[in-house]
Amino acid sequence: MSLKARHINEFSYARLKGQGVPRAQSFSKSGIHKRLKAERGYSFDHFAREVLLHEKQSRQLVIYGSHSIVHVKGWLVDHKGNSVASKVFLRVDDVLFPVEYGSFRSDVANKLKNKDLAPCGFQVNIPGAIFVEAMGVSLIFKGADGQWQESQSLTVDLRPLDPKTIKEEEDAIGLCRELDFARKSRDLQALNMYGSLSWKITKPFRWTLDAMQLVAVLFNRKKLKAATNEIKEKGIVGGVTAVLQNRKNFNHLNQDYKLYLRNHHLGPKELADLKEKSKQFKLQPKISILTPVHNVDRRWLNACVNSVLNQVYSNWELCLYDDSSSNAETLESLKSWESSDPRIKVRYGKENLHISGASNMCLEMATGEYVGLLDNDDELTQDALYEVVKAINANREVDFFFSDEDKLEMNGERTQPYFKPGFNEELFLSNNYLCHFSVIRKKLLDEVSGFRMGYEGSQDYDLFLRVYEKTDKIQHIPKVLYHWRKIPGSTAADYDDKSYANTASIKALTDHLQRNGEAGEVANGLWPGSFRIKRELKNPKVSIIIPFKDHVQLLEQCLDSIWGKSTYDNYEIILINNNSEEKATERYLKEISDRCKVHDFPGEFNFSEINNFGVSKATGEYLILLNNDTEVIQRDWIEAMLEQAVRQEVGAVGAKLLYPDGKVQHAGVIFGLKGLANHAFLGKSDNDNLYYGNANVIRNYSAVSAACLMVSKKDFLEVGGMEKNLAVAYNDLDFCLKL
């Protein structure tokens, strides 16, 4: 049986408006074990564990679990023996999990001889994949004095238990590729700062700064153009709101990033330790850094070269090719580096080959097993090559590594970090998020003939697409290893969707489709630098299954929006009536009997069984499971979902769902977010592209909501449909994990 593990949220274009309270979302463990084994190298099948945290008596915890869910129980008082405030977090490595605190522990009260401490118990469910080896764990809490405190690091000891001794916990799992986002949780300093009196007092000043940012936009031609486009698309109120919100998001992000950098700074001691560790690597591959040069300011070129010279890993070579520069400073700088270090190679071109041709000349100079790409005005972190070689030693089979990145302001300040997810094909096809720092096996670059002329501005995207067609061994290194300098006029500072880079990106994606035999077209996405691939459809029949019980007004609104707005015409609507009692419902069903099929499903409400029953009545090749309290607001919603569902590698396709006030209800499900699982971008404004535009691009998730879910009927039946034992919650996520 062919199982699929990719679930796409086609939320940029297939959006529906939720009119009622969404069903509770949760998930089960079914279907995840194979993925765990593939991604982590181990499985939790038939294995249960106990984790003992050895600590002082004032904070005692016992952690136990089965399969891939770990349940943490314990009790907590502060360092002075007092009860704590309601906010408690369990820190595992650098991931924070909110804890439910306040359950009664009379045994603790008796032991401490203080009945007021009885409500000191807590519990939390966390991803089992976190506990893969001994590591440090601590508790973060707010004491009686209102200040945030952190316990000393605890020692974790993993011990297998007899599964019979463990009470079955919720049928749930906690693995997610998107844990990279959770790993960027705020630290204690952030928590204290945002709760401080000074932070509250200065709020008006921060709003003033936001207003000044809007004024700054009005006096910046390119920013004004971008703001004008927002207003044209979303109206005056929506456009101005989006501009201010985007500026506010980046300001908050940069403030948080300052705290992050303060606590992740590599000092001389740490760098010396890494240098010694790098000498112990079994594999010591040479990394060739390709840096084409053209009329760059001496300051930036020198900073670029020095960032390579300062690497703690030493087996590298820097290939500098001057693309016929006319700037005397650039040429003088290159000459000064020629004899400075034998690992630095410099060549001079007599004619301007542009970025693609110059990059190929750098590639010709390279003798390393792997090749890294570095622009002539950017910088690497000192541990960049160390982290790459560390990853190579951990998995020799990987062909393509990419890392997180940030931006360098002209004054040298580090801003706008991009903490990326792991390799995500749909996100990659929506925009080139891999970008910097990229290191690729040279053999593959030679195989695809390097960079192609005519793709300047997006030559790296074109290269990555062609490399991706040769290998799926692509790995994310979840650390910022690259600084992208925001020189005025550069892509780092601004990106225009009508620029030559945008045209080259569309050309590269179109070529990718043609090479892979996929019929379709590439269109601009919802923000500059994003794209949508619209695959050609063969008009398959789609069955829309809508369970309901009375609430005629909601059902009528849902059906009218489908009939009135859908541009796809080859569909059938199957209504599943679960114990409706009202006369108005009976009259309405008679009115529409010639436009849709109605089937009765008597008995208690069971969302899974109702949908399974509906599928048994469906004649379409593809299914849409749809809640009756939704309203279509995008005319091509069926086509947009179908464009993804027809792909063999795709399991289920979800839609971006909005509340009536325009805020996001669902944009994909992330396991491990704020506990076990949660909806991406929940409660955020639809006017905001949010973190690096991720709220408005097509990308794959661990699961999507069945409030609006498309899947092929063949795949639905192949995995046995939805789990009938999950009558209300868990069923849609369990279904996605089975695909």
Explained architecture:
- The N terminus is likely disordered.
- Helices cover 33% and strands 25% of the residues.
- The longest helix is centred in the N-terminal third of the chain and has 43 residues.
- The protein is globular, with a radius of gyration of 28 Å.
- It folds into four domains: 228 residues, Alpha-Beta Complex (Spore Coat Polysaccharide Biosynthesis Protein SpsA, Chain A), CATH 3.90.550; 134 residues, Immunoglobulin-like, CATH 2.60.40; 67 residues, no CATH class; 214 residues, Spore Coat Polysaccharide Biosynthesis Protein SpsA, Chain A.
- The chain has 739 residues and is of the alpha+beta class.
- Strands 12, 13, 14, 15, 16, 17, 18, 19 and 20 form a nine-stranded mixed β-sheet that branches.
- Strand 13, helix 10 and strand 14 form a beta-alpha-beta unit.
- Helix 15 packs parallel to helix 16.
- The N and C termini lie close together (10 Å).
**How would a textbook summarize the main sheet?**
9 strands, mixed
Q: What share of residues are in beta strands?
A: 15-25%
Kindly report the name of the CATH homologous superfamily of the largest domain. Spore Coat Polysaccharide Biosynthesis Protein SpsA, Chain A
CATH architectural name of the largest domain: Alpha-Beta Complex
Number of structural units classed as domains: 4
From the N-terminal CA to the C-terminal CA, the straight-line distance is 10 Å
What would the CATH topology of the largest domain be? Spore Coat Polysaccharide Biosynthesis Protein SpsA, Chain A
Going by helix content, strand content and strand pairing, the class is: alpha+beta
